[in-house]
Amino acid sequence: MSITRDQVVSIHYTLKNDAGEVLDRSAGGEPLTYLHGHGNLIPGLERELAGKSAGDKLQVTIAPADAYGEYDPQLVQRVPRRTLKGLADIRVGTRLQAQTEQGARAVTVTQIVGDMVTLDGNHPLAGNTLHFEVEVAEVRAATEVELSHGHVHGPGGHHH
Ligand code: ZN
Asked: What is the reported pTM?
C-alpha cells in the first residue's frame, strides 16, 4: 500500500538542521503516526512521502517555505516586563501566549534587557532548512472516525 490522502502513516524520522545538529527524532523507537493529507505534517514532508510504502527509506531537504515558514521580523515585539505581570518566571526560552492585534499567539521570550522583554512569534524552526531521514514503518487505511476528526487515534496518535 503506498501513501495517499486519508491513509494512516507511521514513520521513524530524524530531523537535522544545516549544521547537522539533531533537532528532533521519533522518540524511543516508537514511530510518529499521522493522517496523510490533512496538514498534520509540514507540507514539504507530506509531499515527499506521497507514493512511498512501508519499508521505504528517504532523505529529504525541505526549504523553510515548505516547513515552518520564513523568519518574519514583524512577528518580533519588545514589551515592558510589567505588561507581562502575572507571569512570575519570565526567562529567555519561556513560551507563552501573547495578545496581539491578530489575537492570541504563541511567542517565545528571546531576550531580556533591563525592563524590556523581546517576544518572538515565529515558530522556533522558522527560517530553517530541514533535513529529514525517514523510514516508513506502516501504512494503513484510516477509520471513519479518524477521517472525521482529521487525525489518528490509538497508538502514536491522539487519545480522546
Ligand atoms: Zn479525534
From this structure: 0.80
Output b/e per residue, 57-96; b: 16+ Cβ within 10 A: eeebebebebbbbeeeeebbeeeeeeebeeeeeeeeebee
pLDDT by 10-residue block (mean), the chain, 160 residues: 95 96 89 94 96 98 96 93 80 85 85 94 94 97 94 73
Range 73-120 classified under CATH 1.10.10.10: no
Residues at Cβ < 5 Å from ligand 1 ion: 149, 160
Segments making up each domain of the chain, as ranges: 7-68+126-149, 73-120
Ligand 1 mean position to 159 CA, how many Å? 7
Pick the CATH number of 7-68+126-149 from 3.30.750.24, 3.10.50.40, 3.30.70.1150, 3.40.640.10: 3.10.50.40
Q: Are 62 and 130 in contact (CB under 8 A)?
A: yes
Distance CA 44, CA 68 (A): 10
